[in-house]
Amino acid sequence: MTLKNESRYLMNYFQKLIEIFVISTRLGLTSFGGPVAHLSYFHQEYVRRRKWLSEKDYADLVALCQFLPGPASSQVGIGIGVIRAGVIGGFISFLGFTFPSVLALILFALFAQQAGVGDFGFIHGLKIVAVVVVAHAIIGMAQNLTPDVKRKLIALFALLFTLLIPSALAQVGAIFGAAVVGYWLYKGKNVEKSGGELSFPLSKRFGAICLLLFFGLLAGLPIASYLIQSNWLAMIDSFYRAGSLVFGGGHVVLPLLEREFVPTGMISEQDFLAGYGATQAVPGPLFTFAAYIGATISGWSGGVVATIAIFTPAFLLILGCLPFWNVLRQNKKVNAALLGVNAAVVGIIISAFYEPIWTSAILSSVDFAFAAILFSMLVYLKLPPWVIVLTGAIGGTLLAALA
């Protein structure tokens, strides 16, 4: 390549990066409504308007990201950036889509500490909202990931194991145990796979390194946190594990994060729920709730570290699986193990949902009745989550005044 051609190539590459950043930032500022809505915005922008990839390629990329744990819409955005401009393109795409909500939530956390929003009467209403939204997300996840009796039993055993042994190592153990059971139960079965092929500018060696790093951190961080008494390391471990175990959308990460940080006293329940309400009001991925928690615990630097920790699994998984996707989705043994893992995650989430979310929010028959009303508004009337949050806050304030 001549110097002139090399300069032209670099100029075109930088133009691509700038274009990715501008478009993804605009989406990060305007994409309300959760992961399903985000995928619709991405389809409109990247497939229909920009034509960066075909309808089929986009559908295959979405299938891959739904197949992996983590924030599906963020992973799709990363994948589109990788297709367009390699690993750096994936990072720029993620940065643009995520930065607006991260900044907003860090600023809100710093303001909330000064204003003392945890003392306001709407907090209990937000706790009930959390029960409703997470329950709805879990129901949808369970329908997709535990459709038969065998997977329901795997989920049940994971629920019992993590409920009776509430620890980080128990969660990881349940995941690996379920992978073995899933492989044993489903290795000879015909597992549904998607067709078609995708090509990505990543080598299989690079992908293997990312996957090894993902599993190494998932297994190693809890051990390191146990051996080295450090609040920063404990926080990184908690966020990384939460980002590694979540299927079914950002709402499902809530019980995992509450179990990690509220009982330990790193953040109060009032501050936690106030941040959850704020997260519903900003665009972008719901995983940016981690930025609020981190900033509440350790200031703006804690918000940055928490964001990196919770999104790192998503990065490692999407970059690790892209080079192998065409092979992995045709491998019956891999798919069998993942069926068990997906089922176990349902059980782990239900365990975390019960304690502490349900036990701290539903304290009376009135609370249960109010939760039923909010659930009906969300599921049957199809009202957006921010309406549910606002109704919960107002209702909680009224209930407190009448008590």
TrEMBL record:
Q: Which InterPro entries match?
A: Chr_Tranpt_l_chain (IPR014047), Chromate_transpt (IPR003370)
Q: Which Pfam families does the record associate with it?
A: Chromate_transp
How is this protein annotated for GO cellular component? plasma membrane
Superkingdom of the source species:
Bacteria
Q: How does it sit in the membrane?
A: Multi-pass membrane protein
Q: Where in the cell is it found?
A: Cell membrane
Transmembrane regions listed in the UniProt entry: 20-42, 87-110, 122-141, 153-186, 206-227, 277-297, 304-328, 334-354, 361-380
Main location class: membrane
Mind listing the GO molecular function terms for this protein?
A: chromate transmembrane transporter activity
Keyword list, A-Z: Cell membrane, Membrane, Transmembrane, Transmembrane helix
Give a yes or no for keyword Transmembrane helix in this entry: yes
- Family according to the record: Belongs to the chromate ion transporter (CHR) (TC 2.A.51) family.
Q: What is this protein called?
A: ChrA protein
